[in-house]
Amino acid sequence: MKIKKPLIVGMGGVGGLLATLLQERGMQVTALDRVKGPQVPKGVRFVAGDIGDGAWFARQLAEHDAVISCLPFHLTLAIARAARKASIAYFDPTEDVKTTAAVRKLAQRAHKPMIPQCGLAPGIIGIIGSHLAKKFDRGTLRSLKLRVGALPQHPTGQLGYACNWSPEGLVHEYIAECDVIAEGKRQRIPALKNEEVLHINGMEYEAFTTSGGLGTMTETFKGKVETLDYKSIRYPGHLACMRLILEELRFRENPDELVKHIRYALPPDDEDRVLIHVSAQGKSEGRWQTKVLVAQYDPIIIAGKLRPAILWTTAVSIAAVIEMVNAGALPARGFVRQEDIPLLAFLKTENGKLFAKNCPKLGKL
Question: In terms of C-beta density within 10 A (0-12 exposed, 13-18 middle, 19 or more buried), how is residue 25 classed?
Answer without folding.
Answer: middle
